[in-house]
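Section handout, structural biology tutorial.
Before the tutorial, make sure you can parse a SMILES string by hand: atoms, branches in parentheses, ring closures as digits. In the record below the ligand is nicotinamide-adenine-dinucleotide, and the chain has 428 residues. In the tutorial you will relate the predicted structure tokens back to the input. Do not try to memorize them.
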Amino acid sequence: MATVGLGYVGLPLALTISEAGFSTTGVDLNSSRVKAINAGEKVISYFPEDRIRNAVGGGRFRASDEASVLAESDIILICVPTPLSAKREPDLSYVVKAVETIAQWLRPGQLVVLESTVWPGATTTVVQPILERGGLRAGEDFFLGFSPEREDPGNETFSTRSIPKIVGADDARSRELLDQFYAHIVTETVPVSSSATAEAVKLVENSFRTVNIALVNEMKVAMDAMGVDIWEVVKAAATKPFGYMPFYPGPGIGGDCIPVSPVYLSWRAKDVGSSVPIIDLARTNNDNAPDLIASRVATELTRQSGLTVEGARVLIVGIAYKKDVEDTRESPALAILNRLENMGAACDYHDPYFPVLPLTRDHPDLAGRKSVELGEKVLQGYDAVVVATDHRNVDYALIARTARLVLDTRNVFSSMNVAVTGGKLTKI
Ligand SMILES: NC(=O)c1ccc[n+]([C@@H]2O[C@H](COP(=O)([O-])OP(=O)(O)OC[C@H]3O[C@@H](n4cnc5c(N)ncnc54)[C@H](O)[C@@H]3O)[C@@H](O)[C@H]2O)c1
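Predicted structure of the complex:
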């Protein structure tokens, strides 16, 4: 068994497979990550302390930067990044490179499964021809399919094992093999009729989230104008046992998944002469969300403190794209910080997961900034504290007691039962 790519998705998957009893090798180009994993280091913050150490120590799992190990594997799963290009179009270059490497070691009888998010048709039209270059045929000599990752980093309720697994392939034998394999790993498999169907499932799920997040953020602004608290509305609406599913307002969307999948869907729709205007509008609204929050910060500084944003000191709390994870990819918090600074504010951030900001594709100029330690004096030095991400390990009581103006994009004070007195809290 081998997984190619040991990131947020590939590593939990590889560990789950080895925990199910398969001898598993995780292949990754990043040698320092390979070294850290083999040394039993935690590498993903929300993992139990000893999960990697136990897997490595148990002898069923190891990491490697040597592609030659692929020759020994009966099953190869691909979990490499599928980001957007500089032109904000699907970038399958990591998949192509990984598949070209696999093709060098491909032998009869192997099962190859793509797990990275791609557009419908990519496994058949991009992956399969590369693997067949050496003369072996998919569905006859080797087997091929697609099974989307549904990992939700940091989710304590659903793990790789307990999330039902969609399995799709273009021929019956490949589909059967995929289904048999994953049935050992996860509690439920959901076979579908083709790779393209399985690829589409992932894009539909993420586009559904994209549209609903845009919808609830739109309603937040309208409810606010009506003097109604959207969080209270959503909480009450969520009691309806059918026909409604809660989505919560926030400062925008981030991560490597939700902002990216709808672009893949939209691109492919155009490619085949169709279109997805509702999804495209939701994307635009989500892309604009951080700017709206920054403008709202400026408005509240003036309305509540008589200050202009120019020259104001603002602390952003939570810089990761979602709570309790150490991931800044496409984080709206970075966009808010950047926007406020362009408006003339002086910004700092506090995030327990990021003592120092890493290099990001969207905001490379912010790399190297340091997280500010929270303290009474420090907090009093800011004109506004903006909660962009609701990590649980932040001292909200200290912020509530000390900050001059608190602007909360996540309803965190309410949900954590932290009282903010003196009318200085505004949900934005
Ligand atoms: N992170 C999520 O929440 C999430 C959830 C569901 C699906 N996905 C999808 O899963 C896929 C992987 O995402 P991720 O978050 O794990 O990415 P990641 O960036 O965390 O990890 C990818 C890993 O692949 C390695 N890699 C890249 N090219 C390689 C190659 N040719 N050979 C070996 N290793 C290589 C990188 O070094 C990196 O360690 C993407 O398609 C993503 O859209 C991600």
